[in-house]
Amino acid sequence: MQDLLYFCQQLINGLTIGSTYALIAIGYTMVYGIIGMINFAHGEIYMIGAYTALIAITGLATLGIAWVPLVLLIALICAVIVSSSTGWAVERVAYRPVRGRHRLIPLISAIGMSIFLQNYVHLAQGSRNIGFPALIEGGFRFGGEDSFQMSVSWIQITIFVTTFVCMTALSLFISRSRIGRACRAVSQDLGMANLLGIDTNRIISATFVIGAALAAVAGLLLGMYYGSVDPLFGFIAGLKAFTAAVLGGIGSIPGAMLGGLILGIAEAMTSGYLSGEYKDVISFSLLILILLFKPTGLLGKPEVEKI
């Protein structure tokens, strides 16, 4: 029974981290699916969302506003607005001017933007870790008092529910809305979509904005879960989310979701049964193993070259 509880505890921890990886990974996979480029500044947009939420929470506390639902709602709105604006600016500054050129040029531009955003936050907020207030506390415990107890915290439940709502809303938006249908058309053939009257620049900007908004949600959730943020907060999470997107199949939204969950569970199981020092080794080994047998990822489709 104790072994089962311990396994379930690691599974819950993995699903918690994997859910946030999936939210961030969607930004990578949507941009790649639309324009075939990797937005390496996406991790920093997620980090900016976490910092914005922290500043909003601190400001509301200074004003004496302490009702948690209202504080979370305002912090989320502020984080989404700032991150979405940053994502839109990144597309206009770092991608649109070099779109259509050799793929190496936008890649260098994205890496440069990532370094710029990292250093900007470093100068504005300092390099030290900043504590993130635990607004959602408490949870449930299962198991005897004299044995291992499995815990499920309210913040973990919040992460599960929020991720499910965001994923469902995104799926409905892509499948049923006018902009969503335009996104699918642009991802299939950008040139033809342009000829048919679709404003491709607007659709590409909307893709960056949607990905940045989801990253902001993940930034708020992970900030509360880990309890601190720093200027490198986005680099590591962005790298893991990119790995999740590749694992599930870059360009596939369901693949990004699946890849994030698999990566989170692999990290949690490795930390629980081996050591936290090996979690990255196991995760990237799993990625290499899957790509050896399925180069396009778990749910990715091979590109068909048009003649």
From TrEMBL:
Organism phylogeny: Bacteria, Pseudomonadati, Pseudomonadota, Gammaproteobacteria, Pseudomonadales
Name of the molecule in the record: Branched-chain amino acid ABC transporter permease
Membrane topology: Multi-pass membrane protein
Keywords: Amino-acid transport, Cell inner membrane, Cell membrane, Membrane, Transmembrane, Transmembrane helix, Transport
Transmembrane segments: 20-38, 45-65, 71-90, 102-121, 154-174, 203-226
Chief site of localization: membrane
Cellular localisation: Cell inner membrane
Family: Belongs to the binding-protein-dependent transport system permease family. LivHM subfamily.
